[in-house]
Amino acid sequence: MFPPGFGEVAERLRRSTVHISTRGQGHGSGIIVKSDGTIVTNAHVVRFGHLRVTLWDGRSFPAEIAARDLRRDLASLQIAASGLPAASLGDSNQLRPGALVIAIGNPLGFIGALTAGVVHAVGPRPELGPRKWIQASVRLAPGNSGGPLADASGNVVGVNTMVAGRLALAVPSNEVARLLRGRQAYPLGVTVRPIPVTSQGRERLGLIVLELAPDGAASRASLLPGDILVGAEGGFFTALEDLEDALEANSGRVVRLQFLRADPNKLRTVSVQLGVSDSVAA
Q1: Which among 33, 102, 157, 273 is least surrounded, fewest beta carbons within 10 Å?
Q2: What does the alpha-carbon distance between residue 161 and residue 143 come to, in Å, rounded to a whole number?
Q3: Which one from 145, 173, 219, 279 is the annotated catalytic residue?
Q4: In percent, how much of the chain has pLDDT > 90?
Q5: Does residue 55 contact residue 80 with C-beta atoms inside 8 Å?
Q6: Is 145 one of the annotated active-site residues of the chain?
Q7: Which domain holds residue 212?
Q8: Residue 19 appears among annotated catalytic residues
Q9: Which residues contact 153 (CB under 8 A, 6 or more apart)?
Q10: Residue 136 maps to which CATH number?
């Protein structure tokens, strides 16, 4: 049974949800978080560039990437529009199992599709490291990524990102707030997404390379889209932030990354020299 006013809440959320297209190669969703045209989505939704954002009223705008947090698969965009219906960010730390949540997005070409469910857990997934995910029984499909997960009052408590174990996973809204407060560059020049991998008989956390920045450190080191990063400096990743920690610790120097390519049982190593043009792959 939905609470009173549910229809109005859902309609407001639809107006704050946008459709994002990228060069005809991908589609996803986004959330208007400020009336000045600031939009939040998943980093993997906007990896191809040449972005276009379509609002609920049919207006369409080119968009520029303002910031990315590749550890959490988040990005903020800016469009030249004002007076937009911005969604309110809720406090994801207050979310509890059993709470009603609503997901809005553009799955499989259906604009503004709504699905509702309940929160099953707020916490880490064993295969994805220790960072928290909102895990809910809402149905997601391609095109939902980057859209809002909201509570019964319409406050956005998460950004829908993926499906794991038949549950939808959303990045908590408090991570979105951190993205909007501060913007940091990422020195490796890649967009990655966490996935579970089985290598040499063990299940590990992997970071699959989705995109490489032209002439970035990873590109110069001959890493390729589809490669799966599993470790740095001889240690395997156990958390999403391990890669960034390794890069920060070796800023301006060589960092050795372990990765998989094609054969999940063949561990490869690449030496990446951060900030200069020479690097060697092995």
Answers
A1: 273
A2: 10
A3: 145
A4: 56
A5: no
A6: yes
A7: 190-281
A8: no
A9: 9, 90
A10: 2.40.10.10
Classify strands 202-212 and 190-199 as parallel, antiparallel or unpaired.
antiparallel
Q: Give the pLDDT of residue 24.
A: 64
Handedness of CA 180, 133, 24, 262 (dihedral sign): positive
Q: What is the pLDDT of residues 131-180, one digit of tens each?
A: 789 999 999 988 999 999 999 999 999 999 999 888 999 999 988 988 88
Q: Which of 73, 151, 227, 242 is catalytic?
A: 73
Could you tell me which residues are beta bridge partners of residue 280? 271
Question: Left if phi > 0, otherwise alpha if psi is -120 to 50, otherwise beta: which for 203?
Answer: beta
Element (H, E) at 175: helix 173-181
Total domains in the chain come to: 3
Which amino acid would we find at residue 179? L
Given the residues 44, 173, 242, 279, the one annotated as active site: 44
Neighbours of 233 (CB within 10 A): 13
Collapsed DSSP state (helix, strand, coil) of residue 110: coil
Task: Tell me, yes or no, if 27 is annotated catalytic.
Answer: no
One domain, residues 171 and 117:
yes
In a domain, 185, yes or no: no
Report d(CA 43, CA 69) in Å as an integer.
7
pLDDT tens for each residue of 60-107? 999 999 988 877 899 999 999 999 999 999 999 899 999 999 999 998
Cα torsion 144, 145, 148, 149: sign: positive
pTM above 0.85, yes or no: no
**pLDDT (average), residues 103-117:** 89
